[in-house]
Each structure stands twice: as structure tokens, then as C-alpha cells.
Amino acid sequence: MMDLAGWHPIAAATDVVRRHVFHGQLLGREVAVWRADDGFVNVWENRCLHRGVRLSMGLNDGRELRCLYHGWRYANRSAGCTYIPAHPADAPARRICNRTYPGVEAAGMIWSAVAPEAEFALPEVLVGTDPLVLRPVSVNAAPGVALSMAEGLVPGGSVARGASVLFGQAGLVVFVQPLDAHRCVLRGVLLRQPEDRIAALRDHDGLLCALREGIEAAGEAAPAPLEVSFQPVDEALGQMPARGVGGGELRVQVTRKWAAAEGIVGVQLRALRGVLPTFQPGAHIDVHLPNGMRRPYSIVNAPGEEGYTIGVKRDDAGRGGSICLHDAVRQGDVLAISAPRNTFPLRRDSERVLLIAGGIGITPMLAMAQALAVQGIAYALHVFARSAAHVPFAERLEGLAVTRHLGLDAAQTGAALSGILSGYAFSHHVYACGPAPMLSAARQIAAAQGWTEEAVHLEYFANPEAIDDSSAFEIALARSAMTLQVPAGRTILQVLQENGVDLPSSCEQGACGTCVCGVLEGDVAHQDVYLSASEHAANDRIMTCVSRAKSARLVLDI
Amino acid sequence: MAQDRGALMTELCNDPVMLEHWHPVVSLEELRRHGRCRTMLLDRAVEIVAQGEGAVVRCEAALVGSLVQYGYVWASFGEAPKPLFAVPEFDEADRRFVVTGVFGVQVSAGRAIENFLDMGHFPYVHAGILGEEPHTEVKDYDVEVSQNRDEILATRCRFYQPKAAVSSDAGAEVDYIYRVPHPNCAVLYKSSPMDAARLDVIYIFVQPMGQERIRAHTGMCIIDDASSDLEIRSFQQTIFGQDKPILENQYPRRLPLDPRAETPIRADKSAIAYRRWLASKGLRWGVIPAGV
């Protein structure tokens, strides 16, 4: 019986070199081992969840691993899928996540376990040493056989705790890495750095090879290989839903809070335990604030970066969310947040991308610019702000293709936008986030310069329109088989939530797109700024937080 | 990975779905060059010997049912094999028929067919030829399972291709139609760069040697009087040479029919229809049936 809980060395630290993917194996399971540029060592099941292609053939871009077959991208640390090139306009909303194993780098080796019952603890014999890692020697024998025979084949050997043999006088420890039931690797380390490194490597390599010959010559019948089954993906992933639903709450700690610019704080959040779910550029999280409010904030992180960083502008005239974050939340506080949702996905099938940020609208644009820069797609980031002191995250802007437009009035901003938006061509896309007047101007200028509606992507902070909630109508829920009345003064979303129908929502003013619902019958009175004019005309989706019915009845696909 | 190794190597295929189909065993071109061919079909060693215009197929001295069609010798161990599917374009006199090669691949037939139906990999696996980044989108297309013809048809497929026409270096969307008229055979129709009104025909006929071992016979029936046979062949060999390492690194090697075994997306509609179609036939050989 194989011990699935035990920690074993699976590679030398020097095998996991920059931008490389190492193909390893532990107890019959193949693993793809790769180091991100931030130093984190990922140990993943060696199989893309899409079509089963080995991830060890993939490309490590330092932040994400790209599958060779269809270019799916998986994030450092979380192993979540961040981008599916076949559907560039969609955020991979479903939680597509590779199976991961724990990985620890210690004593010049990468250690992992299939199903650990305890945290990694460095074997006692290695504590406080600066070992020299020898060349691994693979052996065609059962790991247990190799272990017990190694003890007898070299004088003075004794099996230490775990799967290792200690040769006291030589200062040599041999770890037996169980590849499978019938194969293993001898991973030797010298506990002290020898004076003559080359000679020591040669001598001990000879010793390990002799050990292999001795073990294999004994000719013990090797057991059959382990049966390894692949865990099925969860039921939702096996089907093809059009859209996933954001998950429950996460607990995070504020690990850093700093003045990122005039009137803007940066807030860095880390998971209390484990790894936070994968985010994509354009995604936001809802932060549950100590004052009971829940506010959406865009994630500014680069691909594969640890934790989430958000930027919050103080808005004294706002509803109080930003003031609470500025004044009440401190470093070390624990907050609840939602999993990231992406209602502003970035297409990466573009020849050129324009990113236009107004004020604090820079936050999703930063995430996009960093992703485009890593992937090598041509882009230009234009930042509009009152002054240089009002532009946050200067350290992230370094090295990005950024142009600052400072202190412009409305007319000057329009002129600058006209210049930026000239020269539209096929496969160009523009993304903009900022104050409503600026976005309206951008939309008009883009249309006048020949940009197609599909190529213009806008994210509003808030809905600038006054919402008319005077109508009363009936909604029928096709999938839930319920009929409900929406009176004047209440929204569809409120009525749904009061009746126990779970629909995620975030901004609740028709700007973010989270509470979208399909429409099967009836005419919609759209009041949101999320959907485009042609999407409004299509009459097949509704933002349930603000939009209402023109007809007496709406049939919703929920 | 471990579970694929040595599995069922000694057992002969007794799956009625496979036994009741015709399978390609050798192209006439290859057979005429060598006079005879020894190969494997459904775990059995077979020998094909040229005889007149046709061929005789034997398995351990016993005669095996055979026919000659579409430039290939087809064999079946069944008593009343299902008639071979129709590809009318083979009879159009102005088309060139070119056998572009036969490729041994360590994979199941189903994985090879699924790869043939797949457009999403063009910009990655066939970069600069059949697709090119950043044009990676698989636009919505239609898939139907034709009941009376018992085949899968994917229509309205479009994909961006660099240098789509001989006359121009510019990229453009190319139209594709895919047919799967046989569990191990697929035919694709693609806009002809020479004649905008007609479609080129490209086929893959997979010879299942074992559950995880195939010979893929590929060829074309095209409107082209400019390219030499060698050019057409080396083009297709380049394409298949790019697919082979992907196919041989897919795990499990057999095609999983359980919908939860892998993660489909909308672009995989034709593959999903194909897996369901195989499952509905009750196929168990060369696949991992659902619920196992």
C-alpha cells in the first residue's frame, strides 16, 4: 500500500528554472511543475481540463501557464482558468480550475504530497544544513524494495523517518521518490558542501548508480502500476451553461493600506487561508464594509499576482462606502468579499487595444494593461486626471505604454479623445472606464469615427440617469415556475430576493451588469448603462436592478 | 499515464459497433507500390495482397470481407457490415484526388476525429497556416445529427485564416462544413482558394489498429491545377505533423464519453455531438464509456 499522505521530493530546485515547465511524477500521478516569476512553485495535475493535453508541454509566461492545444491560460497559484481564446468576449465565469498539489521548496528540492495530512516539515536530518543535491537516479523497482535494499547495500545505512536512507559517515542521505508502484527515483543529497564539488558529485553519482544496479539485479518482481483515476469535473462544468454565478463570501485580511494618490487609497487583500480565486482583467469584487454596505471595486492586479489590490477614491458626496474604507478600515482588519466577477471582460483577440481611464476608472484599465503587456498584444493606455498627483499606482504604471492627459476641461478632453480614437481598423477594441460625461463623449466620438458598437466597451461607475420606478407589472419565472408582482417603488431584483430567488447583484444601479437575467417574453423598459443600444433593442436580457417592463408581463429565464 | 499502459493488449476487439463497420486498411497507392501490406485492425493482424484492380484481405489465413472505395481497401470482420458512407465529390471528374499520407499515432480513433473537427486549435497548433493569433474566436456554428443518414453535420463554421487565398496575402474568414458519417471517418469541406463557388474536400479515414493505436489515412479531393502532388502532400504532412504530438499527449488516450470527464465550451459543440452519437451507438471499444 502506498502512502499518499507522505511528502516526497519530486524535483531539484534547479529543475524548475525560469519560464520552464518540469514534468514530474509522484505515486502514479503525473505533475507539471513550474515556477512563476514571483518565485511561487506550482505543482499541478499534468492535464488540461479541457481536452486532457499534458500541461508540461505548455508555455510558462512567468505569470500564467498556457496550454499548447487551445491557448487556455491558467493563473499562477490558484490554477484557475483566466482566458479561453475561442470565446474572447466571455469571461470564463465558470470555476475552471486545474487540480493542484501542494509544493514546497526546501533544502534545494521541490517537495510535494498527493493527499497530505499535515503541513510540510523538513526532515530532521536536513534541518540547519546547506545540502548539495546530487543527480537523481531512477530505478525500476518498487519504492519499498529500493528503500530496504539500499539500507543493506551500502555499509552503515539506516532507514530514517520517512522514505529516506541515511549514510552517516558519508554525510549522504538518499530519498526514495515513489514514481509509481514499480518505479522510483533515488534523490541523494550531501549534508555538507564538499570542498571539491565536482569530485564529490562524480563519486556519489557512481555510488547511487551502483545502488541502482544492486537493487535492479536482485530482480524482485515489480508490482503492477498504480491505477490512477482522473477526478471528474463538477457537474456544471460538464455542461455548457451560458453564464456562471458568482460564489459565496471569502474572508480576507487587509495586508496593506496606503495613500496611492490624492484622495485615493490602495488596499491590498490577502486570503486568510489558502489561495484566493482566480480573477481576470476587468473583474471586480464586492467588499462588505464594516458599516453594512457592500460596494464593488475593480481588481488592479497583474496576471498571476498574489491577493487582490483595489483602489478606492474618497467620495464625500457618495453613499458612504468610500468614506468607510478610507476612515474606518485599517491594515490587519478582516473583511468579507465576494469572489471576483467579471462583467467587463477583455478580449485578447485584438490587433490593437485602446484603454481610456478617467480618474479612479484607472483601476480595471491597469489590470487590462498589465495583462496585455504580458501577452504581447499592442495597446495604449490613456489616463485622464486632474493632476499628476491624482494618478494612483505609479509603480504599476512604470513600464506600461501610458500617456497622461492632465488638467483638461470638458472641451479639451473631447479633443484629446478625438485624437486617441482616430484610426479605427478591423480588430481594434477600445475599453474605457471613468465619469459618465467622459464615457458618453467617448461613445459619441467613437461612433463618429467609425468604431463599431461591438468594438467599444465602457464601464460606468454609476448610472447617471434618474431611474423611473413608477410602473407596476407581473413577472413569470420560467425555470422557477413562479409568478410575482412588482409594484411601483420596488425593483425586480428586490422582489426576486424577497421571494428567495438567488440572483447575484452588485452595484444595484444598472452599471455593473452582475444582475443580468434572460428575457423570454415581454417588452423591457431598459434603464441601465451596461447593455449597448443594440443589446437593448434585442430585448433578450434585462438588468433586474433598474430596468422594468413596458408590457404588463415579463417572462424571465430564471 | 499509468492506467493506459498495457490495458487490454491481449484481448481482441469484440465490440459489435466496430465489428459491423468497414475500416480502411491501406490506400491503393501504397498497396500498388509494395504489392502487399501487413497491418493491424481491431487488435488483429491482417494482410492485404493486391489482386487485379482490387485486393484480398486475410487474417490468420482466413479471408476477411473487403471492398475498394475512395482509393482505399476497406475491410470488415462483420457478417453484414453497414454500407460505406457516400462522398459524391470523389466522382467529380475535374477534382484532383491526392493521398496525402498515412500516419501512425498512439491515440484512440475518437481523439483523432475530435481533433479533426476542432477549429479552436488552429491559431496555436497550426499557427501561421490555418489560423493566427490574435484571431482566435470560434464563432457560433450549427451542429445536427442527421437521423436518416446517421451522421453528424456541422455547418456555418467559419475561422480566420492567414493567407486565405492564393492571390492575396491578406487573412480572411474561411468557411468549413464537417461531416462525420462513420465513427472513425470525417470529411471536411472548405472554401477553395482557386474557385470561390466550390468547396475542397479533405478527409481523414482512421484505421483503428488497437484501442489506443491508429493509422490515420488522409487525403484531398480538390480543385487545384497549380500545385504539384508533392506540394499538396507536404502541406498536409506539415499539418498532421503538428497535430501528432498533441494527440500523443492527451490523457486518457481513449475518448471519454462521460460529459464530466472534461470541460466542454460552446466551440466544442461538434465534439459534444460526436461523443453523444458514439455513446448512443453503445460503443465501448476505444472509448471510456460514461459511468465507468
From TrEMBL, chain A:
Keywords: 2Fe-2S, Flavoprotein, Iron, Iron-sulfur, Metal-binding, Oxidoreductase. One of its GO terms (molecular function) is 2 iron, 2 sulfur cluster binding. The keyword Flavoprotein applies. Residues 473-558 form the 2Fe-2S ferredoxin-type domain. Residues 7-112 form the Rieske domain. Residues 247-347 form the FAD-binding FR-type domain. It comes from the Bacteria. SUPFAM superfamilies: 2Fe-2S ferredoxin-like, Ferredoxin reductase-like, C-terminal NADP-linked domain, ISP domain, Riboflavin synthase domain-like. InterPro entries: 2Fe-2S_ferredoxin-like_sf, 2Fe-2S_ferredoxin-type, 2Fe2S_fd_BS, Beta-grasp_dom_sf, FAD-bd_FR_type, FNR_nucleotide-bd, MRET, Riboflavin_synthase-like_b-brl. This is 2Fe-2S iron-sulfur cluster binding domain-containing protein. It comes from Pseudooceanicola spongiae.
